[in-house]
# Entry
Amino acid sequence: MKTQTRNKLILLALFGLFFVPVLLAYLMNAGYLHYKPQPSKNHGDLVNPPIEMRQYSQNPLLADNNDLWKLVYVNHGPCDSDCARMLDAVYRIYLATGRHRSKVKPVVVYPQAELALPQGLANRFEKISLAEEPRAQALFDRLSRQSLGQGDGFYIVAPEGFLMMSYPKGFNPSGTIKDMNVLLKRKDG
# Structure
């Protein structure tokens, strides 16, 4: 190929490199091309509007603006094998937050005065009893229909004290990890 032809091709390629994006932007803005990027997908369900927990609970871990994301598992009865599996999943989600782990707290909420957790899990969770908080208990009972059901639920509470996401029965913990990574990055950024 001649040098002159090669130089012309390089000039055309450079022209196209800068002109084509401008042309595409014009065509999209004028309405000739229709493109909508896919919105980001949450793996949990957004609680809309977010619920301000201090209206329902006096417990500082749930209600206060303490700069911690809370992974809240609500258990309605004794901690059986389903409860132990759920606690294990919540703790794994907590571990997967990696370098942000100091900003996340796993919490188990229960309606009775005391809850015995399985060996090895008891010291990994903050425990909150709702025995003296009927408004919070009624809130979680209502939200349970949207989440795990039968009085149980899994939720994310933002550092500002707002319950903002719930997860349905059979949710995939890896999806929750993705949600948490997005939330933690947005909060930092």
About this structure: Residues 3-30 form the longest helix (28 residues). The CA atoms of residues 43 and 175 lie 5 Å apart. The domain at 45-188 is CATH 3.40.30.10 (Glutaredoxin). The helical segments are 3-30, 60-63, 81-96, 134-144, 173-188.
